[in-house]
Design a protein that fits this description.
With about 375 residues, the chain is of the alpha/beta class. The protein folds into two domains: about 45 residues; about 300 residues, Ribonuclease Z/Hydroxyacylglutathione hydrolase-like (Metallo-beta-lactamase, Chain A, 4-Layer Sandwich). Helices cover about 35% and strands about 25% of the residues. The strands form two sheets. The chain has an eight-stranded mixed beta sheet with strand order 6-5-4-3-2-1-14-15. Strand 4, helix 3 and strand 5 form a beta-alpha-beta unit. Helix 6 runs antiparallel to helix 7. The protein is globular. Bound molecules: zinc ion (2 copies). The site of one zinc ion has 7 residues, from loops.
Length: about 375
């Protein structure tokens, strides 16, 4: 067909089709030139998601919450607090799913976990030990991972995890080679200390000193809390505990991380459960009041509110909150506590971070 025989409408169609074809051709040419770059960017992105960006700021004591819940809030990672300074990491408790938060947090290098400190052997404080040792081994840790804790139960926990992960260690060693995955670096090693004294030094290196102190969490044997000191800054982790008789020993710390139960609410939950015929839940919510620290004074017994009234703290971080901290009634109780407390109170949340620069009074909450 000759062009002069085309109608005006058909000419327009021809122009549109031609322009569209040129556009498609241009896109195809551009894409073919850039395909390699696009592919490379994709692969680089995959590596970036697996590569951490270390926080290279020196002499800042970092407190990172990688697990904040108890067994009664199974949808949130259970208790674990990472103390980090000069790219060395010290893990206090390793509750279930906390290792995933450690890794995804993105600035903590699992290859440089120096030690783990266990407050006690309840499952919500040890459940992620296997994942932690595996993640740090895979990322290049160069020794077995020491696990500190009070009493012989720590040896049982360490032996149990080492046995459970034995096949995994063997598979990886065979697959990647013994030079790359040194078998001994995939092991936990128990560092047991006894607690004849109320407080004792259990660990010291060039960055930090760690003291353990006895806490009332009976009938659990060997329950302790930890005081971490780096130069002029300090953090205290209560572990699981009933309200302690005396809090003078935490006077002046920068961060007190304290567990808590809102006994008034857990008692109501227990009563509801009995009324609804769920005796197991009723019993559990009644029993747990015995060995956790009630927040607000209740039933003629002092809670953290009055016990900490005369104590000087930089920040009070509440953790391991029972019942679930996302419940509206619990939120209101926490708000009431905050308004009544003279302290700067924060509610520990996943991957929340508190930074304490050394030789300074500054406290930065991120
Ligand atoms: Zn617990
Ligand atoms: Zn406990």
């Amino acid at each position: 067909m000759k062009i002069e025989n085309l109608s005006e409408k058909n000419v327009l169609k021809l122009v549109v089709v031609t322009l569209f074809s040129i556009m498609l051709l241009t896109v195809a040419v551009v894409l073919s030139f850039n395909l390699d770059t696009l592919k490379q960017n994709f692969f680089d992105k995959q590596v970036e998601t697996l590569t951490l960006i270390p926080d290279n700021e020196e002499n800042v004591l970092r407190v990172v919450f990688t697990g904040v819940s108890s067994p009664l809030t199974p949808h949130i990672a259970q208790q674990s607090v990472v103390i980090s300074i000069n790219n060395k990491n010290y893990v206090f408790d390793a509750g279930s799913r906390s290792t995933a938060n450690f890794i995804s947090q993105g600035t903590l290098d699992a290859a440089f976990i120096e030690a783990v400190f266990i407050t006690h052997t309840h499952s919500d404080h040890i459940g992620s030990l296997g994942e932690l040792v595996l993640a740090s081994w895979g990322r290049g840790r160069t020794s077995s991972l020491p696990v500190y804790g009070a009493g012989k139960e720590i040896q049982n926990v360490v032996d149990g995890f080492n046995l459970a992960y034995l096949p995994d260690r063997e598979h990886r060693t065979v697959h990647h080679g013994e030079e790359f995955f040194k078998p001994e670096n995939g092991l936990l090693i128990a560092k047991i200390f006894q607690m004849p004294n109320p407080e004792r030094l259990v660990f010291e290196d060039s960055n930090i000193k760690v003291f353990a102190f006895v806490v009332p969490h009976g009938p659990i044997h060997g329950a302790v809390g930890y005081r971490i000191i780096a130069d002029d800054r300090s953090v205290v982790i209560s572990g699981d505990t009933d309200v302690m008789d005396n809090y003078d020993f935490v006077n002046g710390v920068d961060v007190l991380i304290h567990e808590t139960i809102i006994e008034e609410i857990s008692t109501k939950v227990s009563e509801s459960a009995y009324r609804l015929g769920n005796e197991r839940i009723g019993e559990i919510f009644k029993d747990i009041n015995d060995y956790h620290a009630n927040l607000i004074d209740y039933d003629n017994r002092p809670g953290l509110l009055s016990k900490l009234e005369e104590i000087d703290l930089g920040i009070l971080a509440l953790i391991h909150i029972i019942p679930d901290k996302d419940n509206i009634i619990v939120k209101r109780a926490l708000k009431r506590f905050k308004s009544k407390s003279k302290h700067n109170v924060v509610i520990a949340d996943i991957n929340m971070e508190v930074q304490l620069p050394l030789n300074s009074k500054e406290i930065i909450v991120k």
